[in-house]
What we know:
Elements: H1 18-28, H2 42-65, H3 72-85, E1 89-90, E2 103-106, E3 109-111, E4 126-135, E5 138-147, H4 153-172, H5 179-191, E6 196-197, E7 203-205, E8 212-216, E9 233-236, E10 239-241, E11 247-249, E12 259-261, E13 267-269, E14 272-277, E15 280-283
Antiparallel strand pairs: 1-4, 2-4, 3-12, 4-5, 6-10, 7-8, 9-14, 10-13, 11-12, 14-15
Amino acid sequence: MLGKKKRWHALPGQPLTEMDKQVMYWENKGKLVPTRDLIKTPEQIEGIRKSGVVNTGVLDEVARQIHEGMSTLEIDRICYDYCVGHGAVPADLNYEGFPKSVCTSINEVVCHGIPKATDVLKEGDIVNVDFTTILDGYYADASRMFIIGKTTPEKEQLVRVAKECLEVGAEAAKPYGFVGDIGHAIQKHAEKYHYGVVRDLCGHGVGLQFHEEPEVLHYGHRGTGMLLVPGMVFTIEPMINMGTWKVFIDADDEYGWEVITGDELPSAQWEHTFLMTEHGVEVLTY
């Protein structure tokens, strides 16, 4: 009987590196490991890093201009103009039919909110702005939450805890650890506040394409999922709901993108692109 095809192969004619030994050890233990093409070269990392600078600049520009009374369509124009003005391309625009350059998700919209002239920000709203940049063929992906004016203590706490979930997830991401370690840490922190962690959507590898392996679940168990290896680039982007973790697609969305919380309570999300190094993760976007 033929054995299971291996995902990891040492380079022909080259001695085994410490990375090879670690990955092959865990693969022989039956764990899911990356393929070698998921390990970015120094040149690729530099390209992704530069894309991340533009991506951060887009969100900084949104932070500078966002205000009560503006429409989410205006946010889309800000993002498009900054991105294109810095030699990059908005990855979302026309991606699988998505009609705009950025996702703007207000209150109970979990993610993939489509910018509209009729969606006008008002006092107390919380809004996630999620943007992905392509610069010279390299992708970087990040999102931030914004509070419009003064909101309720409950919404303030949700936004804060969602950011803490991103931070504890990043802290749990270790070289030669597992993706499940990230999800376990996030779920544990969110559930201390009785919040729901969305299970239908996840983080992902990124860099050479919009979505690559691995899937980065924001819930789960330690020691599960793909092995994390230095040189991998991926997002962590926990979607934290004030109530249930369940979601549905907005029936009024003609494009079929907008995701809503199952109980229509608010949701919050923060996202960074991370590089796994020999010492832990490096943030490539803010």
